[in-house]
Amino acid sequence: MKSEVALPQPYLLFLGDTTEPGYAKTAFGLRDWAGERCVGEYVIDGATVSTGLAPLTPEEAAARGAKALVIGVANSGGFIPPTWWPALVRAMDAGLDIVSGMHARLREIDVLRDAAQRLGRRLIDVREPPSNIPIATGKRRSGKRLLTLGTDCALGKKYTALALTRAFHSRGVDATFRATGQTGILIAGGGIPMDAVVADFAAGAAEMLSPDAAQDHWDVIEGQGSLFHPAYAGVSLALLHGSQPDVIVVCHEPGRERVLGHPGYALPSIQDTIDLALRLGSRTNPDIRCAGVSLNTARLDDAAAQRVIAHESQRLGLPVADPVRGGETFDALVDACLS
Fold first, then answer.
1. Which of 22, 84, 93, 126 is packed most tightly, with the most Cβ within 10 A?
2. Which of 11, 176, 162 is nearest to 100 (CA)?
3. 56, 40 in Cβ contact below 8 A?
């Protein structure tokens, strides 16, 4: 497994012409968890999404010390549209390498490959799985594992896993954040991009990602997709089976009613997600349990968020918290994970 991703830093975050905040999760994740490595953001005509970082041209970013432009978008299908190509070439002209976590490979785009060769710039794709992934065995491994699952994509699985890892560390618990997507890999410096793994090897990749460990060590594994997602349920199930979690935390955004990018599908309930995850997860870990629920309340004010958190905790009979807001409710969720 690739344990290190040597990337030129700091970054200029590229948002393209994105209008859907959920597709800019790579940029938001880097802003929130690696902000010291981000000098600003760069958008093109049509964009309505912003990270709130300083708007910079590639030339201005290079003058401030930026070494690379990171594509901060994770759109459906992971493609790099032609409308972005001139901006990426401009970044290379300004002296920046290009870093991408998209499914599309930078070097497969002639315009970008030719510009990189002409200018001596690097094109770095982080969404490349290792070549030696085994078929899953289903064999139980030592150590403890926690997996975040969601009712949908782009609603807090990565943030929850990172926040829980940080909380475990603050309590003196030996824990490792295990990245499974491009943003997590950019933050952690290593991991396996699960959605780039051939389907037959996906559960094996999850086993590889969280190997045998000391009995008191926790691997906190970033979830992907949703078990109910019409397109991405396969990677979610492979991750669940392969990671063999002892504990799951289900993530949800209050108020979201339709699947992101698939408005013809209603979101599953939190309870249905818990029930299905426990049923399927028990195949490789009969002792699996749900410690609680993580809510993304970013769209709510503090009072409304606290009301929703309290209501859902009472309704579900489980600890419920927003890890970004923290507080006593999050402490209770951490307690439940470690109990």
1. 126
2. 11
3. yes
